[in-house]
Amino acid sequence: MEKLTVQDILDADLDGWRRLAQALHARFRTGDFATGLAFVSAVGEAAEAVGHHPDVTLTYGFVDLKLLSHDVGAVTGRDLELARRINEIARKQGIGTATDPLTEVELALDTADIAAVGPFWAALLTGSTDALSGNDVVDPAGRVPLLWFQGTEAHETPRQRFHLDVWVPHDLAERRIAAAVAAGGRVVDDREAPSFVVLADPEGNRACVCTCLER
């Protein structure tokens, strides 16, 4: 399957779905557990019919779905098609979506020696060095956020080495940044917007608000 670009995904105009770090995400407001369970069951039947399956999180008031073609590591046409089928199921069951809560957090660690620190963090976070894949620690069980290593020059001066990458829907990034600034933060660097904007808290600890745009 061909990998889709961000523009391909935006042009598809999928109601309620947003691409975050890699995959398509959607939250469906089911209101109670029984409704959510029935929705998940119907989604499962649709997924089995096309041989492509979403990641599902079922809680009392909502269902979170994530779509990614794992064999190519990207969003493809089959993800868009299944998203459309899921939206039709939701419409028939009277279930709506909400994009405001959609958020994905990744951890980033500055290092000049990935080969040295990568196995340690893979073992610590997942129990196995096999979780180290290139510049990322990926937990196949989904227990911990993705950790990626950002290459940097060796340095001895104390500095912040860890930061959070907070992925939000592209059309809600400005609102999220404004909320953080209103809560006492500040914008440190917005030269790479809308791809990412660097923020800092009142003590100078930094994080990035990231979107899928211009990548």
TrEMBL record:
It comes from the Bacteria. Residues 107-210 form the Glyoxalase-like domain. GO terms for molecular function: 4-alpha-hydroxytetrahydrobiopterin dehydratase activity. The keyword Aminoacyl-tRNA synthetase does not apply. It holds the Pfam family Glyoxalase_6. InterPro entries: Glyas_Bleomycin-R_OHBP_Dase (IPR029068), Glyoxalase_6 (IPR041581), PCD_sf (IPR036428), Pterin_deHydtase (IPR001533). One of its GO terms (biological process) is tetrahydrobiopterin biosynthetic process. The keyword Isomerase does not apply. Transmembrane segments: none annotated. Keywords: Lyase. It catalyses: (4aS,6R)-4a-hydroxy-L-erythro-5,6,7,8-tetrahydrobiopterin = (6R)-L-erythro-6,7-dihydrobiopterin + H2O. Its EC number is 4.2.1.96. It is an enzyme of class 4 (lyase). PANTHER family: PTERIN-4-ALPHA-CARBINOLAMINE DEHYDRATASE. Belongs to the pterin-4-alpha-carbinolamine dehydratase family. This is Putative pterin-4-alpha-carbinolamine dehydratase. It comes from Nocardioides mesophilus.
